[in-house]
Design a protein that fits this description.
The structure is a single chain. By secondary structure, the protein is an alpha+beta fold. It has 4 domains: 7-243, no CATH class; 264-340, Immunoglobulin-like; 342-418, Immunoglobulins (Immunoglobulin-like, Sandwich); 424-527, no CATH class. 33% of the residues lie in helices and 29% in strands. The radius of gyration is 36 Å and the shape is elongated.
Length: 528
């Protein structure tokens, strides 16, 4: 997407550069909110452009009423407006699909409730990246929109070229295309091909949070309105309508990155929003009091990033009204953030690795993409997976080191490798000791080994145990049992009467990763 020569489109295009730069980051909630702020700003600009286009079309229609030879010009202006409005409706339909995500269209719950103080009026799935990738990339809605972008631009251009080819308007169709085609901001362009993306949709929407697509959709509509404005503005010159007017404006900064690593160069493009082309010749821009060279209303400001944290810079602009000679100035402060490269490794479920189970870990490094990460593991473990997500499977206890290398950093992390904690022997899934009614006790099928509070998907098995029955005024009798279910001990359990004491001892259980069974807690039960 190129920077247009039409000044009123500059602000939106520069804001779009801010947006695309943000997408390279692991964006925070503050930046997510910035996407919606940018979207609202572009929407306001769209309304201004719409009103201006309406006024121009009405002026052309009035000129056609006064002179019938301009009737074809008025008709062409109406056709261009219809094409632009139809295209805007198509964009809104795609945006509604993304907002709904997996919910049915028209569901009133696709937006946060009005009393949500943090995210009022935002789509429910504003952080979701899978929705945009599925709908816009995998299902082809994005590339369908890309085709409509180019088709709508061509249709609007065709209206004007056909008008010029039918009469003598002082400019041929070929001359018009040569002069104005580069000013048409509504175009998919070829940047996605130059950067090696498989498609326009993949380049613009792949793994992009829903919140980030909001200003993009509005920006695409803005491109259509600016293209419409350029074309009907040209048509207005055919009937002698020209109006150079200064509206509200402010400086706009479009950094290539809003978050830079210490030592990197911070670069941003500065522009003037909402001005006419005639004003740019008399415009000037300064940053922190120093003048910056300006061409066609665009200036490039560079400074070396140093020191961690937010950095501010002040932009001043001056614009001269070519009609009145009046000079109007504007000032605004912008901010970017400087950080250092860092990396973090965290076990997804615990802060240690456990033998016998899969231990998933997530790896991320600020300012480094997942395909640049190189991860290795040492110690009694094996590692599988790729990118940010890996799985560690230990084969024995001890210590493991996870080493992460990426451009500009190398860090090593130490993890303890432990066996699964001892399970708790329980009867009837209730407890390890206590009192139990006679009938309920006889109904038990065996002893269970329960991993209380262990978050992994692991199961321990009872290998064996010994049961002692102490009846009133009688010697204790014992029996050994193999396995978890009552077999050899069933005879003693069936002899239970109120007042008896049952003692379960030498309980052995085997958990995943164990070479042999381990002795766990004993149980004492009094029969009621």
């Amino acid at each position: 997407m190129s920077i247009p020569k039409e000044p009123r489109a500059l602000m939106i295009n520069l804001m779009y550069l801010v947006l695309t730069a943000m997408l390279a980051l692991n964006v925070s909630a503050k930046i997510i909110n910035a996407f919606f702020s940018i979207d609202k700003g572009i929407q306001k600009s769209n309304k201004v452009i719409d009103n201006a286009n309406d006024q121009t079309v009405r002026a052309i229609a009035k000129g056609a009423e006064q002179n019938p030879k301009y009737k074809d010009v008025a008709t062409a202006a109406d056709e261009i407006r219809k094409i632009a409005k139809s295209f805007s409706s198509d964009v809104d339909e795609v945006r509604e699909l993304v907002a709904a995500g997996d919910l049915p269209l028209g569901d009133p719950n696709i937006y946060y409730p009005a009393d949500d103080k943090d995210h009022p009026g935002q789509p429910h799935n504003y952080k979701n990246k899978d929705v945009t990738t599925r709908i816009l990339v995998n299902e082809g809605k994005g590339d369908e929109l890309g085709k409509k972008i180019d088709a709508s631009k061509d249709a609007m251009m065709k209206v004007v070229t056909e008008l010029l080819s039918r009469g003598k308007w002082g400019k041929t169709a070929d001359e018009f295309k040569k002069e104005f085609e580069s000013q048409m901001t509504l175009a998919t362009g070829d940047e996605w091909q130059k950067e090696g993306s498989p498609s326009w949709a993949h380049h613009n929407f792949f793994q992009m949070p829903v919140a980030a697509t909001w200003p993009i959709f509005t920006k695409i509509k803005n491109d259509a309105k600016n293209t419409e404005a350029t074309l009907i503005g040209f048509l207005s010159t055919l009937v002698g309508i020209q109006d150079v007017k200064v509206d509200a404006f402010q400086p706009v900064s479009s950094p290539k990155k809003s978050y830079v690593i210490e030592g990197e160069e911070f670069e941003t493009e500065l522009g003037i929003a909402a001005v006419s082309k005639a004003m740019l010749a008399g415009s000037s821009i300064s940053v922190n009091g120093s003048s910056v060279p300006t061409k066609d209303g665009i200036a490039t400001y560079k400074t070396r990033a140093s020191g961690i944290g937010p950095k501010k810079y002040s932009v001043n602009i001056s614009v001269k009204n070519p009609a009145t000679g009046e000079v109007i100035s504007g000032k605004k402060e912008f901010e970017y953030e400087v950080g250092r490269r860092s990396v973090a490794v965290a076990a997804d479920k615990m802060n240690v690795f456990y033998v016998g189970v899969d231990n998933p870990i997530s790896i991320s490094a600020a300012g480094v993409s997942s395909n640049q990460l190189q991860v290795s593991a040492s110690g009694p473990v094996t590692m599988s997976g790729s990118g940010n997500n890996r799985v560690i499977k230990p084969s024995g206890v001890g210590e493991s080191k996870i080493k992460v290398t990426a451009p500009g950093l190398t860090q090593e992390f130490t993890f303890r490798v432990k066996r699964i904690p001892d399970p708790v022997a329980k009867l009837g899934g209730k407890a390890s000791s206590g009192q139990m009614p006679n009938g309920e006790f006889k109904a038990q099928q065996g002893v269970a080994a329960v991993l209380d509070g262990f978050d992994f998907d692991a199961k321990c098995e009872i290998e064996s145990f010994e049961v002692y029955r102490q009846a009133k005024r009688a010697d204790a009798v014992s029996m050994k049992n193999t396995g978890a279910r009552f077999s050899g001990a069933r005879q003693l359990v069936d002899m239970a009467v109120p007042g008896d004491l049952f003692y379960f001892d030498e309980i052995k259980a085997r958990c995943p990763g164990d070479a042999a069974g381990r002795k766990i807690n004993s149980m004492t039960w009094k029969i009621k």
